[in-house]
Design goal:
Structural class: alpha/beta
Bound molecules: nicotinamide-adenine-dinucleotide
CATH architecture of the largest domain: 3-Layer(aba) Sandwich
Low-confidence stretches: none
Number of helices: 16
Radius of gyration: 24 Å
Distance between the termini: 87 Å
Mean pLDDT: 96
Length: about 500
């Protein structure tokens, strides 16, 4: 019996809308290869309507003039709706992205709700700082919303990325047009269905799904958009920068990485092995912060590798929808090919494959986009598997013997997103952290993100920050108001001519 698939429509100017050309694209479950939903495929006109709606809401709805507390109430309501529907949302995110249900239930959905709630409860008044200029001049700095913000997000953490952008953009008084990736739009389009229930004024938040890069690019080029907050690959980030330059838009770019995970001999070995596994194999390695280069000190090399490889081989690979599964599929068959090409390249360049590297052959995994977790040793930092972002479950292990050597290898990368240091010597850990050229360092842990703390990269990992005070201020611009209280005006100004 044919059952009709659920359709997800656009959120434009407060209304759920069928796309103007009535086109939809398929949402595919990476665990089975099956189509499970259809998502609105917006046209340029749809994107134009969303931008016009956001512009009108910014210019005339009174949204930017509302107090932080009043705007916060809407975000808190969105957080409540996410929590009410947490179970369904976790399943949708799992079906759409291939993230394990354990991960979507305990990480993605609660994290998205927490971010909306955190920014919704913000008590920080925007601006109002007085500058210490000489009397009798009074100088005040205000922080004002930038205007209409276009947010473009990748497929690896759709709900979390949407929350990280929407919540700080709205609380600071901007209006938003958000575009998810065509590879993973469903959870975000589900969120779009609830925005009406949250009571947000029309046009304040618009959500547009589309399979077309041109439609996405329209959000960057359009003169009515004041800022673009982009998360995605470095390659697309370059294009965003080029397109945004036409209208001199403010941009933030959260891009790719090739993060070093540095393990010193004086670490707690079991903890560091566990952390290393999470750093590279969580979400099947499809993380911007993946610790894809393991820098391992000579003295513990053999013992560490034995434990790492044994534990990797014990992963239960399977459908993301099962709570038994440790390791699900990759996002698409095309992406798996891209990762397999890197594995082939690694072998050609002389690295030793110590585990994984193949498509699992079990009958029940045949139709999904599975790939074994893969570890290469004998890697040197000039190989393509050590230089390029693979964005999959491939770990390159590089030996070192001194602290200076570790820092040199770690910094020898085009990227500068994250790094990790494992040692019981906290003085050494902090010294190394300061010498690393990247935006985030984790010490004796990996992958913690906090709404209170800024996250982002340097070098070709981009610029700008998400979360924390710095992330919040990205969505504001600075205005200084200067009042001269000199009686009769300042002679050099008032009597110059
Ligand atoms: P991508 O660059 O292919 O796509 C990202 C988004 O940009 C998608 O929504 C896509 O539709 C859109 N897009 C593509 N071409 C465009 C164009 N010409 N104009 C406007 N929009 C366009 O990235 P992806 O494959 O979806 O995601 C993986 C990448 O994201 C990895 O490189 C990863 O490191 C990065 N990432 C970075 C962070 C971070 O915080 N630094 C977080 C998550 C993912």
């Amino acid at each position: 019996m044919m059952t009709s698939l659920e359709k997800y429509n656009l959120l434009i100017d407060g209304k759920t809308q069928v796309p103007s050309r009535e086109k939809y694209f398929d949402a595919v479950n990476p665990s089975t290869g099956e189509v499970f939903a259809q998502v609105a495929d917006a046209s340029q006109e749809d994107m134009g309507s969303a931008i016009t709606g956001a512009r009108r809401a910014f210019d005339t709805s009174g949204w930017p003039q509302l107090g932080v507390k009043e705007r916060g109430q809407y975000l808190i309501k969105i957080a409540q709706l996410i929590r009410q529907e947490a179970k369904d949302l976790a399943l949708l995110e799992c079906l759409d992205t291939g993230k394990t249900i354990k991960q979507t239930t305990f990480i993605d959905v609660p994290t998205a709700a927490d971010t909306f709630e955190y920014f919704g409860q913000l008590s920080w008044p925007l601006g109002g700082c007085v500058n210490p200029v000489p009397d009798p001049v009074e100088s005040k700095t205000l922080r004002e919303p930038v205007g209409v913000v276009g947010c473009i997000i990748p497929w690896n953490y759709p709900l979390i990325m949407a929350a990280w952008k929407i919540a700080p953009a709205l609380i600071t008084g901007n209006t938003v047009v958000l575009k998810p990736s065509p590879l993973a739009s469903v959870s975000v389009m589900k969120l779009a269905q609830w925005i009406k229930a949250a009571g947000l004024p029309e046009g304040v938040l618009n959500i547009i799904s589309s399979s077309s890069h041109e439609v996405s690019a329209e959000l960057v080029k359009h003169p009515a958009v004041d800022m673009v907050s982009f998360t995605g690959s470095t390659r697309t980030g370059r294009e965003i920068m080029r397109l945004a330059s036409e209208s001199v838009k403010k941009i933030t770019l959260e891009l790719g990485g090739k993060s070093p995970n540095i393990v010193f001999a004086d670490c707690d070995l079991q903890t560091a092995v566990g952390g290393t596994l999470s750093a590279i194999f969580m979400n099947q390695g499809q993380m911007c912060t993946a610790g894809s280069r393991l820098l391992l000190e000579d003295k513990i090399y053999d013992a560490f590798m034995r434990e790492l490889v044994t534990r990797t081989k014990n992963f239960k690979i399977g459908p993301a929808m099962s709570y038994e599964t440790d390791f699900g599929p990759l996002i698409s068959s095309e992406h798996r090919k891209h990762v397999l090409n890197f594995i082939e390249q690694g072998v050609k360049e002389g690295a030793r494959l110590v585990c994984g590297g193949r498509i699992p052959q079990e009958e029940e995994l045949r139709r999904g986009f599975y790939l074994e977790p893969t570890i290469f040793e004998g890697v040197h930092n000039g190989m393509s598997i050590a230089r390029e972002e693979i964005f999959g479950p491939v770990l390159s292990v590089i030996r070192f013997s001194t602290v200076d050597e570790a820092v040199k290898i770690a910094n020898d990368s085009e990227y500068g997103l994250a790094a990790c240091v494992w040692t019981k010597d906290l003085n050494k850990a902090h010294d190394v952290s300061r010498r690393l050229r990247c935006g985030n360092v984790w010490i004796n842990t990996y992958g913690g993100f906090y709404n209170e703390a800024p996250f982002g990269g340097c070098k070709q990992s981009g610029f700008g920050r998400e979360l924390g005070l710095e992330g919040l201020l990205e969505y504001t611009h600075t205005k200084q108001i200067c009042t001269d209280l000199t009686p009769g005006g300042k002679p050099l100004v008032s009597a110059w001519f």
